[in-house]
Automatic annotation (TrEMBL), chain A:
<keyword id="KW-0830">Ubiquinone</keyword>
<keyword id="KW-0472">Membrane</keyword>
<feature type="transmembrane region" description="Helical">
    <location>
        <begin position="203"/>
        <end position="226"/>
    </location>
</feature>
<feature type="transmembrane region" description="Helical">
    <location>
        <begin position="36"/>
        <end position="60"/>
    </location>
</feature>
<keyword id="KW-1278">Translocase</keyword>
<keyword id="KW-0813">Transport</keyword>
<feature type="domain" description="NADH:quinone oxidoreductase/Mrp antiporter transmembrane">
    <location>
        <begin position="124"/>
        <end position="418"/>
    </location>
</feature>
<feature type="transmembrane region" description="Helical">
    <location>
        <begin position="104"/>
        <end position="122"/>
    </location>
</feature>
<dbReference type="GO" id="GO:0048038">
    <property type="term" value="F:quinone binding"/>
</dbReference>
Automatic annotation (TrEMBL), chain B:
<dbReference type="InterPro" id="IPR010934">
    <property type="entry name" value="NADH_DH_su5_C"/>
</dbReference>
<dbReference type="GO" id="GO:0042773">
    <property type="term" value="P:ATP synthesis coupled electron transport"/>
</dbReference>
<feature type="transmembrane region" description="Helical">
    <location>
        <begin position="314"/>
        <end position="336"/>
    </location>
</feature>
<keyword id="KW-0520">NAD</keyword>
<feature type="domain" description="NADH dehydrogenase subunit 5 C-terminal">
    <location>
        <begin position="549"/>
        <end position="672"/>
    </location>
</feature>
<dbReference type="GO" id="GO:0003954">
    <property type="term" value="F:NADH dehydrogenase activity"/>
</dbReference>
<feature type="transmembrane region" description="Helical">
    <location>
        <begin position="212"/>
        <end position="235"/>
    </location>
</feature>
<feature type="transmembrane region" description="Helical">
    <location>
        <begin position="555"/>
        <end position="576"/>
    </location>
</feature>
<dbReference type="GO" id="GO:0008137">
    <property type="term" value="F:NADH dehydrogenase (ubiquinone) activity"/>
</dbReference>
Length: 480, 680
């Protein structure tokens, strides 16, 4: 494989790499340029997104770097989602970080670096490149979690994330070495060939360890324990980032590993995925009920949603993968919207509030914000006619079509439990006596972002179905 | 678009506009639209009726749309216009239009008038749907529609608990009848493969003698179907057994009683039997059942009517009794006479109800006749209208010369019962004469108690309230009250006023109907030749021989009902005019019988013991033991407890310590690995 051809296939990553280095230099030269660098980072992400978007419709698949990576519709779709989510996380951050005294140039640079890692993750076709991408993303994320160093909670979140992430990486690496040892290769294609034959216990252990390591990244139960603490402790824009882009990357990575490398051993990984999906759905739903902190609530919500997404993977069918991608897209819009609303909860002194008690009676003082928040909550609960319903529908549809009826039934039953806490938010906002702690918002960026995301989650979102349907179908086809 | 479309859909349109648009157009516009709509419908209806009478119209079916297309079941929504429909059209639209107008006065002080008028028009639409039905499903649609409107209107004053209870009772009792009707429709469809009325009637004679398995028995098919359908008719027409809702329905405003519970809805059962008369003619057994139920209802309701003191309840039982007449006329084969009585009854019974409403209006919502008396001089127009109604219902007239409306129709029924050859015709005849006597008695009792004698208003709480309220506005209120007590003429100083013009005009029009409807229309309805020509344009089974025979009954038969009427009048006069304590003495002399009548033959008590209380007991059992004890405990509450327990556990496990988190991760990993080891 020619180097030039390979490089042309990873243009988004190249753009982002050079941008990250250039921005770092700029930051060194001009210390207080956080906002400028943020804007430039968003521009870089936009340029990278444009390259991926241009290749979206095509089903072409081109390996790069001698089979370490691949440029295909699946990777491009995931990257586009990641870049958009990262750009939103950058856009909404400045005010928050300025208030915390941490609007430094490293924030956009770290996000961009993380995006490079995620780009590698979703296009990796080798255990080595997989690990490189994963670690690049993770290391950026550890730093981002503790970005507001002056805040003890932020530092704690970073440390917890780092230690547990290290443990998960260890599991992943151990599993990778087992797989390499028994399959004789780190390439997904070669592993897939080895899997076609009788598989021994060693290979199965390898699969289990790799899946465990990846389950940590997508915060699926029982590897979810870090999520509430990190989500709560990390600065809110960072939490919004964690809940969106890295989720997409890790889930996409999981899909590719499972289908391309372990595809023929359906019985082995399917059991694990089903168990993890069910545990995530149930723990995400049940755990959220007792929460008083809205960011923790969103953490459990993301655990819960990951469970639903994994139902699509459990099917192992093309329809299931397409459904997962649809769900992921909608999920990103929902969860980013939820965090945008959270970030508008400021009291009169400009402090950010994130407790249930603070939003009591919000509909009386901030009707538009309460309405947007309600849209995101209803959408997360999957209540028609909001767009969140569509995601759940296609996933359950795929599960039923693949014969996983019990899984679909349990999922639907658990989503009823989940509806409880989403509706509780709405109830507190609309029916409780006004606490009157939330002041008017002065941040037009947040208002506009929230408005756009709310529109996307509203029934207007259904207009996107034809396009989304084609893109996800083409992307899903790339894995088979 | 023909006039029948306008007649049927104009009331619906008016109801929708008035009901949904009342906030935008206001009360007066709502009332105007509905009333004008009904008068238009009425004006369009009469030419159709006249056309059928003089033979210039023939039966036709006006299509609306294809309604249901499902496998073998296929039928259209269409409007059937024939002689039978035409009769109902004029009755419904005329009485409804007059009642709309009357309500302008009667409901003047009510804050919810647009709702009331919308319900009235909605009812009219449903009733028109019922009578224009060309298939049983459409008839059932109208049937349920009038039931709904009746429920809404009985409970119109929904803040009154008794009105709500009456509305629910009417609805529930009608469900029993409706179940019969539904089973009848299912059976008809099963047997004939169609719900189209003309097709059913054409095919019915071929099925005579067949039998069918029902509840484990072999029964005659036609008898079963007819009786099931008749059960539906019994519910809607308040026949014995399913009659208990009608007296309670008097909780609704009086115009409602006049329209729904006298002139139109309650006659739907009679109409249905007449519409399906060729079907009923295939089963003598079913006709016998109809005869016996009708005759028994006639006598039962008349006896109860003797002792009621509420003016509206007397008229309600009277209605029930007159419906019995119509049914036994149908049962003995005189469908034309049944429809004729339906027609005349609509006029004079609506008149009596509206007249009673006028009295109630004048007496400040007092309905107890014991507190009336001497009203003749105060409200003379109402008095004369009621007098016309009473003369009509008691059947005043001279044999061979002429008389009021009821004279023609009721006597025709009694004579037809005598002339008929059906099994129970003499039972029906005997009861018809006896009930005529009772009818005369309770009708005149009502007149004497209300309009004659001396005022007894002072004991009435309503009148006392009225005077008290009046006194408060008066500067010399206190002295004034004292002078009231000083009135020893029984008036308590109250001055009843004649009703306003919107209420008097309908009374006048209906008075004309009560006087002339029999004389003018008897030819078309019951004379052998002209009746045959008239009914030939409909599905009604016109028994020409019976109509001939009816006119050739012995003279004593013809005179019997007149004699009965005079006897009743005489007894009432003696008891309520000459001797003041006769009613009390009679009541104490026949105390058990009096109590039996007063308590309406203990039907309500019987139903309470047999159905209501066991139903409540079961309901409570299922509620306390089944729903709360089992379903709630192990269902919602149980799962909620599990969830909240799980939530506490999850929160507890979320300790915040790294080693806990790492431990959970490793446990998960170990579990997965162990599982895989065991599996392979």
């Amino acid at each position: 494989m020619e180097l030039n051809a390979s490089l042309s296939l990873v243009r988004p990553e190249i753009i982002l790499s050079f941008s990250a280095l250039a921005l770092l230099l700029l930051a060194a030269w001009k210390d207080q340029a956080g906002r400028l660098i943020s804007i430039l980072a968003v521009a870089a992400l936009g340029a990278a997104a444009a390259f991926t978007a241009s290749a979206l419709g095509s089903g072409a698949s081109a390996p790069a770097f001698d089979g370490l990576m691949v440029n295909d519709a699946f990777g491009n779709f995931s990257k586009l989602l990641i870049y958009i989510a990262a750009a939103v996380s950058l856009t909404i951050a400045p005010r928050f970080l300025e208030k915390a005294g941490a609007m430094r140039a490293e924030y956009p640079v770290l996000i961009v670096l993380s995006c490079i890692g995620m780009g590698i993750m979703v296009s990796a076709t080798d255990l080595i490149s997989l690990y490189i991408g994963l670690e690049l993303q993770s290391l950026s994320a550890y730093v981002l979690a503790s970005f507001v160093r002056s805040d003890g909670r932020s530092a704690e979140a970073g440390l917890k994330y780092f230690v547990l992430g290290g443990l998960a990486s260890g599991m992943l690496l151990f599993g990778a070495s087992l797989v390499y040892g028994f399959a004789g290769s780190t390439s997904f294609a070669a592993i897939g060939l080895a899997m076609d034959k009788e598989v021994g216990l060693g290979l199965i252990f390898g699969i289990v360890f790799i899946l465990s390591g990846l389950a940590f990244k997508i915060s699926a139960a029982p590897f979810h324990m870090w999520t509430p603490d990190v989500y709560e402790g990390a600065p809110t824009p960072v939490t919004a980032f964690f809940a969106s882009a890295p989720k997409v990357a890790a889930i996409a990575l999981l899909m590719r590993v499972v289908l391309e490398a372990f595809g023929s051993q359906v019985l082995v990984w399917q059991q694990i995925i089903i168990a993890v999906a069910l545990m995530s759905i149930i723990i995400g739903a049940v755990g959220a009920i007792g929460q008083q902190n809205l960011k923790r609530l969103m953490a459990y919500s993301s655990i819960n949603n990951v469970g639903f997404i994994l139902i699509g993977l459990a099917t192992g069918t093309e329809q299931g993968i397409a459904a997962m991608l649809v769900y992921l897209t909608i999920y990103v819009a929902m969860t980013l919207g939820g965090f945008v609303c959270l970030m508008q909860l400021k009291d009169k002194d400009g402090n950010y509030r994130e407790e249930f008690a603070d939003i009591a009676g919000l509909s009386k003082t901030r009707p538009a914000l309460a309405a947007a928040f309600a849209i995101f909550m209803f959408s997360l609960a999957g209540i028609p006619p909001l767009f969140g319903f569509w995601g759940k529908l296609v996933v359950f549809n795929a599960a039923v079509a693949a014969g996983l009826l019990p899984l679909a039934v349990i999922g639907i039953a658990a989503s009823v439990i989940g509806a409880f806490y989403y509706l509780k938010v709405v109830k507190v906002m609309y029916f409780d006596d006004a606490a009157d702690v939330i002041a008017d918002s002065d941040d037009k960026v947040l208002v506009w972002t929230g408005g756009i995301l709310a529109a996307a989650n509203s029934p207007l979102g259904y207009f996107a179905i034809p396009v989304l349907g084609v893109w996800t179908a083409v992307a899903a086809k790339a894995l088979f | 678009m023909t006039s029948i479309h306008i007649i049927v859909f104009l009331p619906l349109l008016a109801a929708l506009v008035a009901g949904l648009g009342q906030r935008f157009i206001g009360a007066v516009a709502s009332k105007t639209i509905t009333t004008a709509g009904l008068f238009t419908a009425s004006l369009l209806s009469w030419p159709i009726f006249i056309g059928f009478l003089n033979g210039s119209e023939t039966a036709y079916v006006a299509p609306v749309m294809n309604w249901v297309q499902s496998g073998d079941l296929s039928f259209d929504w269409e409007l059937r216009v024939d002689a039978l429909t035409a009769v109902m059209l004029v009755v419904i639209t005329t009485v409804s239009a007059l009642v709309h107008l009357y309500s302008w006065g009667y409901m003047e002080e009510d804050p919810d008038q647009p709702r009331f008028f919308a319900y009235l028009s909605l009812f009219t639409f449903a009733m028109l749907m019922l009578v224009t039905a060309n298939n049983l499903v459409q008839m059932f649609f109208g049937w349920e529609g009038v039931g709904l409107a009746s429920y809404l209107l009985i409970g119109f004053w929904y803040k009154k608990p008794s009105a709500n209870a009456a509305a629910i009772k009417a609805f529930v009792v009608n469900r029993v009848g409706d179940l019969g009707f539904m089973l009848g429709i299912f059976g008809v469809f099963w047997l004939f493969g169609t719900v189209s009325i003309p097709d059913i009637l054409a095919a019915a004679p071929d099925k005579v003698g067949s039998s069918i398995g029902f509840l484990g028995f072999r029964v005659d098919t036609m008898s079963l179907l007819c009786i099931l359908l008749f059960i539906g008719a019994m519910g809607k027409s308040a026949q014995l057994g399913l009659h208990t809702w009608l007296p309670d329905a008097m909780e609704g405003p009086t115009p409602v009683s006049a329209l729904i519970h006298a002139a139109t809805m309650v006659t739907a059962g009679v109409f249905m039997v007449c519409r399906l008369s060729p079907l009923f003619e295939t089963s003598q057994f079913a006709l016998d059942v109809v005869t016996i139920v009708g005759a028994t209802t006639a006598i039962f309701a008349a006896t109860v009517g003797l002792v009621q003191t509420d003016i509206k309840r007397v008229i309600a039982y009277s209605t029930c009794s007159q419906l019995g007449y119509m049914f036994f006329a149908a049962g003995t084969g005189a469908y034309g006479a049944a429809m004729f009585h339906l027609f005349t009854h609509a006029f004079f019974k609506a008149l009596l109800f509206l007249g009673a409403g006028s009295v109630i209006h004048a007496m400040h919502h007092e309905q107890d006749m014991r507190y009336y008396g001497g009203l003749r001089k105060h409200i003379p127009l109402t008095f004369w209208a009621m007098m016309a109604g009473t003369l009509a219902i008691t059947g005043v007239g001279i044999v061979g010369v002429g008389g009021f409306a009821g004279f023609y129709s009721k006597d025709a029924i009694i004579e037809a019962a005598f002339a008929s050859h059906s099994t129970f015709h003499m039972y029906a005849f005997g009861i018809g004469v006896l009930a005529a006597l009772l009818t005369s008695f309770y009708s005149w009792r009502l007149m004497f108690l209300t309009f004659f004698g001396t005022p007894r208003w002072a004991q009435s709480e309503h009148i006392q309230h009225a005077m008290h309220d009046h006194g408060d506005h008066d500067e010399h209120g206190h002295d004034h009250a004292h002078t009231h007590a000083g009135h020893d003429d029984g008036t308590a100083g109250y001055h009843p006023h004649e009703s306003p013009l919107p209420m008097l005009i309908p009374l006048g029009v209906l008075t004309l109907g009560a006087i002339f409807a029999g004389f003018v229309f008897h030819g078309g309805f019951i004379e052998a030749e002209t009746g045959k020509a008239f009914w030939a344009n409909s599905t009604l089974f016109f028994n020409e021989h019976l109509m001939h025979a009816m006119h050739e009954v012995p003279m004593w038969v013809k005179l019997s009902s007149t004699v009965a009427m005079l006897t009743g009048l005489l007894v009432a006069y003696v008891m309520y005019q000459l001797s003041k304590d006769a009613p009390q003495r009679l009541a104490s002399a026949f105390a058990p019988l009096y109590r039996f009548f007063l308590n309406k033959w203990y039907f309500d008590e019987l139903y309470d013991a047999v159905f209501v209380r066991p139903a409540f007991w079961f309901g409570r059992l299922f509620w306390k033991q089944g729903d709360i004890g089992i379903i709630d405990r192990f269902g919602p509450n149980g799962s909620a407890a599990v969830v909240s327990f799980g939530s506490k556990l999850a929160v507890k496990m979320q300790s915040g310590y790294l080693y806990t988190y790492a431990l959970v991760m490793l446990l998960g990993l170990v579990t997965a690995v162990s599982w895989m080891m065991v599996r392979t």
